[in-house]
Amino acid sequence: MAFARPKGTEDFYPSQMAIRSRIFDSLRNTSQKYGYREVSTPAFESLGLLSKKEGEEIKEQIFTLEKRSKEEFGLRFDLTVPLTRMFMEQQKSLSKPVRWFALDRMWRYERPQKGRMREFYQLSVELFGADSLTADAEIVSLALDCLIDLGLTEKDIVLKLNDRKLLQALLLDIIPKGKLEAVIRLIDKRAKIPAEVFADELKKEGIDKVSEIESLLDSDLSSIDSSKKEVRDALASITTLLELLGDKKKYVEFDLSTARGLSYYTGIVFEVFDRTGKYRSILGGGRYDNLVEMFGGQPTPATGFGIGYSTLSLLLEDKGLISADEAGPDYFIGALSEGQASIALKLATKLRKKSTVEVDVMGRNVGNQLKYANKIKARKVIIIGEDEAKSGSAVVKDLETGKEEKISL
RNA sequence: GUGGCUGUGGUGUAACCUGGCAGCACAGCAGACUGUGGCUCUGCUAGUCCGGGUUCAAAUCCCGGCAGCCACCCCA
């Protein structure tokens, strides 16, 4: 092959595209049910915006564009950042809260692997302007509904919930403030690494209170020491949030070790995994009350989540929740010669008012016309030949029942 | 950026170990079964990732690239 598909990109052939569209439709539908409206941003943004946050690995992963004049651009690597920029531009005139979602593609320059592409799709849902627990509950609930509406149940998925404030307050009893970021990062990946490695990494950071951290992470809501005020407040928040979630509580597990890598989260954080643990996280989100301000806007609380398409589709396929059953056209009309093609086309135009119609362009013989119609799963076939052209009527054959019926042309 | 595995028609594979005409299945195209399908049959299209080396002879052995997948890193 002279020209191969670029590394880490995907082609969607009709059957895969049909699946993608169905999933996207479902995600859009669910978001709209909660009053969220779809928005869209440019594929590229100024490099300044994209690399605003210091010291993030993500900067290495930005697909930068060739510098044309003074301006430097890069392709967006997520949707939260562009959406936040978009919010800021009209911040003063937008009535709060602002409920937006975007479902689009983005790019990261990194080594591809299962469920991770260089070009990928993501649903991003953001709620700007509300700092209430009701807002967090809405976001968590919507996130779960996105998955539930696709057919996933509490047997398939679990949402791990945590509060960064709680985690921080508890950790500060054990470690110095300067180590917080690094330790949280380690905690976030604890589930994926052996216990010894976790301990070693902590020691590398100069932390020797490994067992204290471990027992902290393994504690559940009721066993946490709530003598400190911050801890008490955070615990109360979590408890209230769980109450607000009502029936959806069965999807939720409190888990102190869910931290999320991105450092812009400030409060509630959550991540959804499949229960088998086979896939990387399929959804992640949380509260990020500082981001708008960090980008130069007026301080605005915000919360949201993102769902990646790659892992989601792998999981849905695994659970047998998506099938590539493609419906064929209602009619296939074959013409036996160029002379009869105009009759076929006229008939097709008439039928297309109500049906999907495919017309032969190959000029095959009758047997092969039918074979083809069969293969594309057409429901009914009409063959136009000399006889039909003369008599002005044709036979409509139902391919399922085999019944035939005459129509006039 | 690091490591492991794998490269044979469009797809899935056989032949690789032990060098000797690259085979099979599916898909595609054309046709037969008198202008009405699904079966069957026939024919056609199409391949050894690239470059070097060894050899009378390389898909096969050796070296070097490249590509893909998977894992790490990080994350969706």
Could you explain how this protein is built, in words?
The chain is of the alpha/beta class. It has 2 domains: 14-318, 2-Layer Sandwich (BirA Bifunctional Protein, domain 2); 331-408, Anticodon-binding domain (Rossmann fold, 3-Layer(aba) Sandwich). The chain contains 14 helices and 15 strands. Helix 12 (338-351) links the parallel strand 11 (331-335) and strand 12 (357-359). It is elongated. It binds one RNA strand of 76 nucleotides through strand 5, strand 10, helix 11 and helix 13.
Short overview:
With 409 residues, the chain is of the alpha/beta class.
Topology:
Layout: H1 14-33, E1 37-38, E2 44-46, H2 47-50, E3 73-75, H3 80-89, E4 98-107, E5 119-128, H4 133-148, E6 157-163, H5 164-171, H6 180-188, H7 195-204, H8 210-218, H9 229-244, E7 252-254, E8 268-274, E9 283-287, H10 291-294, E10 302-308, H11 309-318, E11 331-335, H12 338-351, E12 357-359, H13 366-375, E13 380-384, H14 386-391, E14 393-398, E15 404-408
Parallel strand pairs: 1-4, 6-7, 11-12, 11-13
Antiparallel strand pairs: 2-3, 4-5, 5-10, 6-8, 8-9, 9-10, 13-14, 14-15
Helix pairs in contact: 1-4, 4-9, 5-9
The structure holds one RNA strand of 76 nucleotides.
Features:
alpha/beta; BirA Bifunctional Protein, domain 2; RNA-binding; 2 domains; Rossmann fold; single chain; 14 helices; 409 residues; elongated; eight-stranded mixed beta sheet; five-stranded mixed beta sheet; 20% strand
